[in-house]
Amino acid sequence: MLQKKELPKLNEGYTRITVCQDEKDVQAAINTYTALGPSDKLPPGFFGQKNSDAKVQLGIMKFLKKKDPPGCSDTVTNVSPENIQSHATKEKDSNQVLESREEPKMASAGSNISLENTPTLAFPSISTADFHFNLDKASDIIVEKVEEYVNKLGNARLVLVDLSQNSKILSLVKAKAAEKNIDTKKFFTFAGNITKLYSEGGLHCTVIANATNWRLKPGGGGVNAAIFSAAGPALETATKVRAGSLNPGKAIVVPLPSSSPLFSREGVTHVIHVLGPNMNSQRPNHLNNDYVKGCQILREAYSSLFDGFAFIVRTQGKPVKDNFEKELKREAQAEQGSTNGEKAKREAVCEVDMNKKYKSFVKELGPNVGSSGDGNTGEQTRKAWGSWAQALYDTAMHPERHKNIIEKSDDVVVLNDLYPKAQKHLLVLARIEGLDRLADVQKEHLTLLKTMHSVGLKWAEMFLSENNSLIFRLGYHSVPSMRQLHLHVVSQDFDSKHLKNKKHWNSFNSPFFQDSVDVIDEVSQNGKATLKDENFLSMELRCHRCQSAHPNIPRLKAHISSCQASFPAFLLQNGRLVFLAGKDANH
């Protein structure tokens, strides 16, 4: 990395990056990590960089005997070894502000699940502040919904948060939860600032709920203003691409960009916006003291909130595949187009309104939503698809609803990938119900596989007639991120702004990507395809031609744009690469 002096990035797969400016910093970092015990962890994020906008690592510049870039001071922020003990015991000491009588015991119980690794939702009392909802009724509903959900979330925790230790809503909920014998290791109350739970209170919450307004805008007062302010402009931007408004009783999940201070400082990965009923006559759209309707809406709001958290727990509980899906989802949501049709789809995808579907949702996930499973990608188990992952299924089953179809037949539909990873990248979707992924394919589907390949080949040849320099590859992801079997037809230039990280690259340039011709041969001979391990997604970055290794995506892209090496021999066999007849695939 010396030539261009590029800094590593968190989105390349790192949890924590510390920049050292000199030998003293290096020794301090070594001392810091040496001081860690087996169960100790450091907060994730990017530390030690003098200027957050700096493109050049100063230590390397000094090594190369060059002047520091302008605008950089000599002050270095260090993480001292002396702070490790206080950090490592932070959660244990947090019982000083915990309302729950059992939580301190859990913090020192020696469980094999670290508190810092436990999925935790911190949520405020919805509608009881600005919207003046009756506290006694609200506390009844909170305890009712917590009791309904708490055992469906595996080892995840729910935490009701309020600023004051003398909060009436915390006292009411704590007392009523105790009467219901709700497990205090899974639900407790906490007094503190919801935007500083970790830095000030030592409580690590991966998800926080925001009692928002219908416009999903910053401002107003209370929790909504505080969360938008603490998260910075990244949250407002991420929210805008998800939805423009929110109805009472509904919630939307917004993955928090790593650029947000809440992500780097507090370890918050998601914000769930939720809107409750308005009983305040001084505010618009109030319910005129109709508590029958108000209680119904508040129950729906908590159900939507906890359903959204359940989805996050499930996807974050499976470290390889689901984190890959999360990356794809985050990219897709952050780069949505601006057409009305896309906006409608975006709102439909992101709104967590699962009240009517919750029974089937829990049935698919099983009793322990947070369980990571056995990780056997070859086993044909039912997969619970999140609402965002249903877009291709809906396109295949109801193509008449979609304008982005470029070919349709009784067997398949064809569309351009919305976030292409190369100059030309399209999808051929199967139109058979129940054929969600490669693991579902059996010998009876052989004719369909051949049809999909034939259609994909036809489009590749059509593109080649327009640009004979292109080379194509047709194949399937071993474990797709979206429901409905689909064939990728992708040009091998990989020249696209949407190709951003290691998982994107390796999903098309490792054994994880299974060539269509090989899948057809395997199904023909064995009745099924052999699925490849998802660990391939975390392989180092290597050029798909010369196999040279590269430290990051920008360096890899710069290399492949000019690499003229031959493709590996296996790609040149069995028709795995598609190029213009009479043309050498390597030139």
Strand and helix map with partners:
Layout: E1 16-18, H1 23-34, E2 45-47, H2 58-63, H3 82-88, H4 90-93, H5 103-107, E3 120-123, H6 135-149, E4 157-162, H7 168-179, E5 187-191, H8 197-201, E6 207-211, H9 222-231, H10 233-240, E7 251-255, H11 261-266, E8 270-274, H12 291-316, H13 321-334, H14 340-350, H15 358-365, H16 391-397, E9 405-408, E10 412-416, E11 425-430, H17 446-466, E12 472-477, E13 486-491, H18 502-506, E14 513-515, H19 516-526, E15 541-542, E16 549-550, H20 553-560, E17 577-578
Parallel strand pairs: 1-2, 3-4, 3-6, 4-5, 6-8
Antiparallel strand pairs: 7-8, 9-10, 10-11, 11-13, 12-13, 12-14, 12-17, 15-16
Helix pairs in contact: 6-7, 6-12, 17-19
Organism: Nicotiana tabacum (Common tobacco)
Protein name: Transcription factor bHLH140 isoform X4
Classification by helices and strands: alpha/beta
Catalogue the unreliable spans.
Answer: 52-59, 61-115, 317-328, 334-382
Helix content: 25-40%
Strand content: 5-15%
The main β sheet shows up as: 7 strands, antiparallel
